[in-house]
Amino acid sequence: MLVSKRVVHILVTLYFASLPGYMPQNLCLHAYFTGQEILQYYCKIFNIDPKEAKHKITEILRILDIDRLNNVQISKWSEGQKRRISLACALIHKPKLILL
Predict the structure, then answer these.
(1) How far apart are CA 18 and CA 29, in angstroms?
(2) Rounded to an integer, what distance in angstroms lies between the CA atom of residue 39 and that of residue 56?
(3) Where are the extended beta strands (E) located within 1-100?
(4) Neighbours of 18 (CB within 10 A)
(5) Which member of 23, 52, 56, 64 has the lowest number of beta carbons within 10 Å of its beta carbon?
(6) pTM above the 0.85 mark?
(7) Distances (CA, A) of 28 to 14, 25, 86
(8) Helix, coil or strand: residue 99
(9) SS3 label, residue 86
(10) Could you please report the per-residue DSSP string of 43-65?
(11) What tens digit of pLDDT does each residue of 37-79 get?
């Protein structure tokens, strides 16, 4: 029996939504990405719809007060700003549990 793409999408989304958000103490960021790009990358990993991803990225960058750095390479950010984008990556899929 073949399973439709829609069913697979729903199952994958439910699986990723159940994963905890994790922010490692040692930063694991791709320094050549911008803030926008790293969050788009994580949205793809967590199978977030592109339209929803755009809204989530804008919202989380604003909440963490790093929206002005949205198009600046992460390698040029301060350590505190890098911690905030790392937190954003851990929160982007709205986990029920966050490990800091």
Answers:
(1) 23
(2) 9
(3) 21-22, 98-99
(4) 11
(5) 52
(6) no
(7) 25, 9, 8
(8) strand
(9) helix
(10) HHHTT--HHHHHHHHHHHHHHTT
(11) 999 998 998 889 999 999 999 999 999 999 898 889 999 999 9
